[in-house]
Every structure is written in structure tokens, then in C-alpha cells.
Design goal:
The protein has about 200 residues and is of the alpha+beta class. The protein is about 25% helix and about 30% strand. The chain is built from 7 helices and 11 strands.
Length: about 200
């Protein structure tokens, strides 16, 4: 979790967003993969959003609740072949995986920790769209839409009042977007500030 000190230490980077894009590596996020022939139908019964209708070029905000409706976690979710990938805070990954696995029962699905297979980054700030285009990447044109290019998944996120251009970048292991985009990594707090400002929740 981020401390007030960490957020304050990123103040100069927050101020710089208006002058050009920054890239934040999001090491506080982990990922689980739900795989198998019944992966989508299993997730459809467990999560709050419509998994079955999730397209291959879309990112989805989804949630996981108890039977009484108490929310346990929110996810960034995308389709990965016949399975689904769920991204959430790494500090709750293990207990959420354990609870979700309890309800697999006879479904032909398995829940595995896929955190090491990818790394997440936030690309935000004025000129981020132009930067993607100059790197030969088609920038998604609508919030929650996703494109793929050379080991990268790039999803456009809802705009914040003070920063319109926000992208979530998920890189396959061994792919370094900071080198491709020519950007040094900014403080992770910069991304989380933009998420709060854009009213995108993380539980």
C-alpha cells in the first residue's frame, strides 16, 4: 500500500504530467489466470460483471463479492485465449485465489498465480496517445478498449479531470515498455493518483 510520504514524494512527477507522458511500473498489482474449458462459465457465476460477453479487445472492471454482497476485490479483467486474466492488488491475491478456487467444484477450470508472466504499467499524461502511435502501436480510441502489439496489451482507461490520456499497459515477461517508449519509470503513486481522480475503484 502507498503511504502519504510516497505520494508526496511524487509531487514533481504529478506536476510534470501536463508537459508530457510518464510511465509508472505497477508492482503492487498481481494477476491470476482462470483456465480450462469451463473457465468463462465458471467466472460468469462468480463475478459481478458479464464475463461471457467480454470481447477479445476489451478490458473490464469486475468485482468479487460474498454471498451476502460484501465486496472482497475488484479486478481488471481481460480474455486470454479460452481463459480469463484477473489483475488485482498483490497483497490480496493469495486469499482471493484460495476463496475462488473453493467454488470450482466440478467445473473444468483451475485458478493459477500468473503474476510472473506479466508486468503492469500506467502510461499517463499529455502526449501519451501520440507516443504510442510513434512507437507503431494503434492506440485504443475508447475507454476500456484494448489493443495488442509485440508482447504488450494496451488499454485506454477513463480520463481524469486533470489528465485525459491514461493507458494501462500489461507487458509479457521479458518485454520492457520503458525502453520501447523511451521513458524512465515514474513513481507508482502517480498512477494511483490518476485512478482516484478518474473515480476508478480498487478494492
Amino acid at each position: 500500500s502507498l503511504t502519504a510520504g510516497a505520494f508526496g514524494g511524487a509531487r514533481h512527477q504529478l506536476d510534470a504530467i501536463g508537459g508530457g507522458p510518464v510511465l509508472s511500473r505497477l508492482d503492487t498489482l498481481g494477476r491470476m489466470r482462470v483456465d480450462g474449458p469451463d473457465a468463462v462459465s465458471f467466472l460468469q457465476t462468480q463475478l459481478t460483471n458479464d464475463v461471457a460477453d467480454l470481447g477479445a479487445n476489451a478490458l473490464q472492471l469486475n468485482g468479487y463479492c460474498t454471498a451476502k454482497g460484501r465486496m472482497l476485490a475488484t479486478f481488471h479483467q481481460w480474455r486470454d485465449g479460452d481463459g480469463g486474466m484477473l489483475q488485482l492488488p498483490a497483497e490480496i491475491l493469495a486469499p482471493v485465489m484460495k476463496r475462488l478456487s473453493m467454488f470450482v467444484l466440478r467445473s473444468k477450470a483451475k485458478v493459477i498465480d500468473a503474476s510472473a508472466q506479466h508486468a503492469a504499467y500506467g502510461l499517463i499524461g499529455s502526449g501519451a496517445t501520440r507516443l504510442l502511435q510513434s512507437a507503431g502501436i494503434e492506440a485504443p480510441d475508447a475507454p476500456w478498449s484494448m489493443t495488442r502489439a509485440d508482447g504488450l496489451r494496451i488499454a485506454r482507461m477513463p480520463a481524469a479531470p486533470t489528465v485525459a490520456e491514461r493507458y494501462l499497459v500489461v507487458a509479457d515477461a521479458g518485454t520492457d515498455p520503458s525502453a520501447r517508449f523511451g521513458l524512465a519509470n515514474a513513481a507508482e503513486a502517480v498512477w494511483w493518483w490518476s485512478e482516484v481522480s478518474a473515480a476508478v475503484p480498487t478494492v
